């Protein structure tokens, strides 16, 4: 039977819109959310945001009420899902793999929701909402920054749309005169400002996160929260002083300054003040001052993290010359088998690789005397990290070479590009026993390599490393007493160190 009631309602325009389109519909939706299923609840909020963002008929006053309402209801849910993804919370109903799409969608759609508020307000802002507009701009930037930061944590490329949104939101705040105005984004949050949050991502992108471990990216983010207030943006180019630039009307990340980066949409900054502060921080940490007293995370004082600060100085300083390749690259095309992780590499060198530890098949794009560039395709969230120890079949003269992952970039289509430094072409498995204990463990010995000016060293699990620690080293029927030197490098799970032979046993 024909539905005359629906037809008449549609013709008269009285039919209620479905889904979330205003504050009232948002409150009804929130009341109906499942209390026990946080993932499903957040998925419903993301769905509501998409509906609201796709509805141009919602007026400014309704949008200005509805968006922050959904935001403030969703923040604790998002925090819980982040804890699940990072392994701090176990949830029987949701795995890290299951929560990731919702995490990413929320940051994007919430940022978009605030962006639409600003876009609509720019066409005519209702009286009394000026302060809201400033806070909404700050929140929008913070959400897009978080989206970009999580791309870096997963070695994903930050797409041009995210950069365009960030740059335009900052430009809007600057044009409206509140880019540096102190604002409190949420009642429980610290006071900050638009420029500070914007510059945090600018400097993080200039730290080359594709070459950092996720834990290092998190740490650099925490440092920058304390440091970026020492950077100012300038609209006039001064190439003899400034070091970096960003086109605030464009859709690309910041770059090292060139003289052709001139125009009203370019912003520039220098880093001398920041560099001086980091140097002073390193000096205080080396003198034993506690990191917490400097407003930094407690593990900032670890030797490896002080090295990371020095690395940032090198990246952000005008005085540091551009890096030079250790050896010439040449293009090539061949496939290799790769074993991932120190334990499995040791097992592979021994010929005892467990059946469940499968090798990956990667394609070499280019190679040199000290490393290779490879790529592979994956349809899953890959867990490879910078600093991971890998074994490579058919690279160099020996059956298995040992390398360290130095760079990772991933496309949204699942292509992973990896730079690997070959640290040993003649690795030997050794047994190490602490002198003050009898629990032995396996490590990798790399003999001296005069062709690349490399001394002998050990690769051992990081948990067993300590400066000047002594071990019994057994290999190929011989035993020595050795003492470790300070670490050459700490990766995510391993340490590389030179050593002195104290006596033959």
- The percent of residues in helical segments reads 25-40%
Number of helices: 12
Order of helices and strands: HHHHHHHHHEEEHHEHEEEEEEEEEEE
- Which structural class fits the helix and strand makeup? alpha+beta
Number of strands: 15
Round the mean pLDDT to the nearest integer and report it: 89
The biggest sheet, with number of strands, parallel, antiparallel or mixed sense and barrel status, is: 6 strands, antiparallel, barrel
Which segments are poorly predicted (pLDDT under 50) over 5 or more consecutive residues?
1-16
Radius of gyration: 27 Å
Instruction: State the separation between the terminal residues, measured CA to CA.
Output: 97 Å
* Beta-strand proportion: 15-25%
What order do the strands of the largest sheet run in, or round the barrel if closed?
4-5-6-9-8-7
Shape: globular
């Amino acid at each position: 039977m024909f539905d005359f009631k629906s037809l008449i309602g549609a013709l008269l325009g009285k039919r209620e819109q479905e889904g979330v389109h205003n504050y009232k519909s948002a409150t009804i939706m929130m009341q109906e959310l499942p209390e026990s299923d946080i993932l499903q609840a957040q998925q419903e909020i993301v769905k509501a945001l998409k509906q609201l963002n796709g509805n141009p008929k919602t007026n400014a006053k309704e949008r200005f009420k509805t968006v922050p309402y959904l935001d403030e209801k969703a923040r604790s849910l998002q925090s819980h899902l982040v804890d699940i993804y990072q392994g701090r919370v176990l949830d029987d109903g949701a795995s890290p793999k299951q929560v990731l799409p919702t995490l990413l969608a929320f940051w994007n759609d919430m940022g978009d929701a605030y962006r639409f508020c600003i876009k609509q307000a720019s066409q005519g802002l209702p009286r009394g909402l000026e302060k809201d507009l400033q806070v909404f701009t700050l929140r929008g930037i913070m959400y897009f920054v978080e989206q970009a930061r999580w791309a870096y944590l997963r070695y994903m490329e930050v797409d041009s749309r995210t950069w365009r949104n960030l740059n335009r939101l900052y430009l809007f705040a600057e044009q409206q005169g509140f880019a540096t105005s102190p604002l409190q984004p949420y009642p429980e949050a610290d006071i900050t400002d638009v420029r500070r949050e914007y510059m945090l991502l600018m400097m993080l992108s200039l730290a080359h996160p594709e070459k950092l471990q996720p834990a290092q990216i998190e740490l650099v983010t925490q440092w920058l929260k304390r440091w970026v207030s020492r950077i100012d943006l300038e609209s006039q180019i001064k190439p003899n002083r400034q070091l970096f630039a960003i086109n605030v009307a464009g859709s690309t990340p910041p770059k090292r300054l060139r003289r052709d980066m001139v125009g009203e949409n370019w912003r520039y900054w220098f880093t001398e003040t920041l560099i001086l502060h980091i140097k002073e921080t390193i000096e205080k940490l080396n003198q034993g001052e506690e990191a917490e007293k400097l407003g930094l995370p407690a593990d900032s004082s670890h030797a490896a993290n002080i090295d990371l600060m020095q690395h940032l100085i090198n990246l952000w300083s005008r005085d540091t010359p551009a890096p030079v390749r250790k050896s010439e690259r040449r293009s090539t095309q061949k496939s290799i088998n790769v074993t991932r992780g120190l334990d499995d590499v040791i097992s592979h060198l021994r010929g005892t690789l467990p059946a469940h530890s499968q090798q990956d098949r990667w394609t070499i794009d280019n190679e040199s005397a000290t490393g290779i560039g490879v790529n592979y395709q994956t349809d899953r969230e890959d867990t490879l990290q910078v600093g991971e120890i890998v074994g490579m079949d058919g690279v160099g003269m020996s059956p298995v070479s040992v390398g360290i992952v130095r760079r990772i970039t991933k496309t949204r289509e699942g292509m992973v590009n990896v730079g690997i430094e070959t640290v040993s072409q003649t690795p030997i498995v050794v047994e190490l026993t602490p002198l003050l204990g009898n629990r032995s463990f396996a490590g990798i010995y790399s003999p001296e390599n005069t062709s690349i000016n490399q001394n002998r060293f050990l690769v051992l699990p990081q948990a067993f490393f300590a400066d000047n620690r002594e071990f019994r080293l057994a290999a190929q029927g011989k035993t020595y007493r050795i003492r470790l030197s300070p670490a050459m490098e700490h990766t995510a799970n391993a340490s590389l160190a030179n050593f002195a032979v104290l006596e033959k046993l």
